[in-house]
Design brief:
about 35% helix; about 25% strand; elongated; alpha+beta
Length: about 160
């Protein structure tokens, strides 16, 4: 068994893990027709408007814990028609929840807890900068060359031993 594990290199294991995660996400979205991915009770959304500025900026990524247990001042994500909205809870009663974007002047239409996806638990800020950097051809080429160099370096060192 140890010999088999030694033959599988680190990059192959990482590739298999990524492939499993991508397959899981694809199955949830396409095969099971889910609106969002449930990954260990959490999901991810990218913010596309500035309604929550300065707390959450355009293109920031929010990690949402799938829960209906929310209270006033929580930032939640809920489904409104075909869209998902991430806003702050400003009032909560037994029947309805009122939300408002931090940068908005008016409240949103009331929702029920059935529409709530969950509570924002983490915000990845400044993601737009990293997306723009990672999309440039020079960075893509540099990353590919680095991966190939590491693969050649570790591949050759295994053959020499």
């Amino acid at each position: 068994m140890k010999k088999i594990l030694k033959k599988i290199d680190f990059l192959t294991i990482i590739l298999l893990i990524v492939l499993a995660i991508v397959s899981y996400c694809y199955a949830q979205l396409k095969l099971f027709n889910k609106d969002y991915i449930n990954f260990c009770g959490h999901t991810i959304f990218q913010v596309i408007t500035g309604s929550m500025e300065d707390t959450i900026k355009i293109k920031d990524i929010v990690i949402v814990k799938l829960t209906k247990d929310i209270k006033e001042n929580d930032i939640i994500t809920y489904k409104s028609g075909e869209d998902f909205v991430t806003h702050r809870v400003i009032k909560k009663t037994n029947e309805e929840i009122i939300t408002k974007g931090d940068a908005n002047n008016s409240e949103d239409k009331p929702i029920t807890s059935n529409g709530v996806v969950g509570k924002v638990v983490f915000i990845f800020s400044n993601v737009a900068v990293w997306i723009n950097v990672l999309k440039t051809p020079q960075v893509i080429i540099a990353v590919l060359i680095t991966i190939i160099a590491i693969w050649l370096l570790f591949g050759n060192s295994k053959d020499n031993k």
